[in-house]
Sequence to fold (407 residues):
Amino acid sequence: MFWEKKLENWVNEIRKTSPLPLRLELWTGQKYDLNPNEDPKVVIRIPELASLSYLLKPTLDNLGTAYVEGKIEVQGTLNDMITMGNSLADMFDTPASTTAAKFRHYFGGRHNRKIDAESIGYHYDVSNEFYQQWLDPNMVYSCGYFENGDEDLATAQIKKIDHILTKIRVRPGDRLLDIGCGWGALAIRAAEKFGASVVGITLSKNQYELARQRVREKGLEDKIDIRIQDYRDVTGQFDRITSVGMFEHVGLRYLVDYFKIINKLLKDDGIAMNHGITSCDPDSGETPFGGGEFIEKYVFPNGELPHIGLVLKNMQEAGLEALDIENLRHHYAKTCGIWAENFEKATSAIKQLTDEKRYRIWRVYLAGCSYAFALDRVAIFQVVCIKSGRTSPLLPMSRNYIYEKKD
Fold:
């Protein structure tokens, strides 16, 4: 049969060029070891002929879709599954941006208040209990800061928040805007430790309710105002602005407008920080081998990642000057790796909180992100900025102040 010949050619090509410890099991009972000299670490079962097409063109999007939709079954450790999938994609696909990604870059994704709220709700409003199973106790859903490399996740997340607030020199009495405040961890820390008065905004109903509950439990209602609000609708002036893990939802075409809004909200002597994931494609294309398409489809609808060069260009166009830029890519690889481990350990509880499809989505997403950050397929930058044209410095002349230990 035609498909049998095509599959045999596919198998032989892998055996010849780059044997993998992978076994295929077909609905017919046939088995193929892609490295006959090594025991398989991963077994992929193909339950029907229609599922074979996902494997014969093994982009990360095709493989991820097949796994999530139950078109294939995969056995093996999570790390081995991710490694094997990437190895297959690397052999049969090209890392270049796809036509869809280039179209989105040049003509822009669809972004308005309604679409953005729906996209945020899809990702963050699974349930608070779902995220509590694998995040740290403060539920910080962004890159940790492993100052020494041996911190546990909870410590690394507190260090990340302190790292941000120290970088922008938050002072007692400062009015701080936290764009995309999540479950409130940064807002609470800024008020408790740094003495700031905080406005935190989110589009997630679940985040809003839990963040407000946590603020009440801390007795900080007079210092923290958590709102369901779009960043485009915020008014007033702020001494400090933070945006952590939010601008990925803005859209490439709208980055200049986003930074213009930050400029407008920032006092003349104010300091802001944008902490967000960036593309490693100089043209701000998708992550390679179909990974971006999978995430767009199943994880972050309408998410778009700019290259750091585009971020800095758009900041300057919006009247903001970048003062400090730090790449935390290795920190995010470690963070996602810990999240993936926590997710695996909590499998039974998670499956009671959501359906099998969403369980599979987040399972491969977390482990796949750790792999992508480790291999420089995506990065994450903290950029400290001020209004352009300042003649006197708002920050010390060196970065030493960031690392001075305080009681």
Remarks:
- The mean pLDDT is 91.
- The first helix runs from residue 2 to 17.
- The longest strand covers residues 266-279.
